[in-house]
Amino acid sequence: MAALRNIVCCGPSHVVRLLRRDFHRTAVAGLQVTVRDALNQALDEELERDERVFLLGEEVAQYDGAYKVSRGLWKKYGDKRIIDTPISEMGFAGIAVGAAMAGLRPICEFMTFNFSMQAIDQVINSAAKTHYMSAGRVPVPIVFRGPNGSSAGVAAQHSQCFAAWYGHCPGLKVVSPWNSEDARGLLKASIRDDNPVVMLENELMYGVPFEMSEEVLAKDFVIPIGKAKIERAGTHLTLVSHSRSVGHCLEAATVLVKEGVECEVINLRTIRPMDIESIETSLMKTNHLVTVEGGWPQFGVGAEICAKIMEGSAFNYLDAPAIRVTGADVPMPYAKTLEENCIPQVKDIIFAVKKTLNI
């Protein structure tokens, strides 16, 4: 009533000011931020927060990064904190691991994780094992990050998912973000962690914008490593995925709800340690499970999830066999039509869900 009385008694200009003031009291809409910018923000804030943090890799400095994730950081922090390296993954990964052993906190960018195979000795035999082999005396706080999995039109040399490869190795933590919130929160948590962390990003997601709240944009926002997130609640079937495939699962769930099927979509976020408890809790409610990943089927992330469900008490809640939706068991072809048939599509997920529910 007081607001109405003010409007009646005041002139038009004052009315506008009152309405504008009331408008700004309403909830503020989330800011649209691309995955690329979320990573850039996280890097910037952690470089500023801790002088031991530095970034090195191919073209990360003067060129602003091959995917512009490190844009502007070299101009702000200089050559000592943002370091361009030769095209030698074994060399600069070794430098980064040694720096971590000496007390620094390096972020080692691979231009693509396919080329991290050049540095596998440094990642596994040096970074992953040293803390254990030194009886806890030598921690290795390092982040290995860069694009992982299939891209578009780059054939077999650049289209491999390493989630299962690195998730296999004790001593590493492995995270796999989907959206901007994941990218920001997991990168900050990884940089602050005292263990070696492998962060598997996705090239096709870098330019995709997602809404981010003020809470997520806070400088101290982190996502706990090892905790999955329910992206969509449901009662009929549990869909478990990570990275870009989470979006496909959400699209499939949106289609299926029109047919009366409510899917619960779980974003793993972390491959190792894996949040099996969240999957089991969901499965006990839905009684059906489908896993989705872009990697190869044999010894994959989905295979591990199915094995853990089989070995645990949640197995008794399954009303049908769990099904895996994966990439094709072939090196990635170059032809666009063949490429599309090698990567899980929304229609493949819908087919798997209907098969599991026998509808």
Structure description:
The chain is an alpha/beta fold and 359 residues long. The chain folds into two domains: 31-217, 3-Layer(aba) Sandwich (Rossmann fold); 229-357, Rossmann fold (3-Layer(aba) Sandwich), CATH 3.40.50.920. It is built from 14 helices and 14 strands. Strands 3-2-4-5-7-6-12 form a seven-stranded mixed β-sheet, with helices on both faces. It has a five-stranded mixed β-sheet with strand order 9-11-10-13-14, sandwiched between helices. Strand 4 (105-109), helix 6 (120-133) and strand 5 form a beta-alpha-beta unit. Helix 3 packs parallel to helix 8, helix 5 packs parallel to helix 6 (120-133) and helix 10 (245-257) packs across helix 14. The longest helix is centred in the N-terminal third of the chain and has 15 residues, at 35-49. It is globular. It starts with a helix and ends with a helix. 45% of the residues are buried. The model is unreliable at 1-28 (pLDDT under 50).
Summarize this, please?
This protein has 359 residues and is an alpha/beta fold. 40% of the residues lie in helices and 16% in strands. The strands form 3 sheets. The chain has a 7-stranded mixed beta sheet with strand order 3-2-4-5-7-6-12, sandwiched between helices. A 5-stranded mixed beta sheet has the order 9-11-10-13-14, sandwiched between helices.
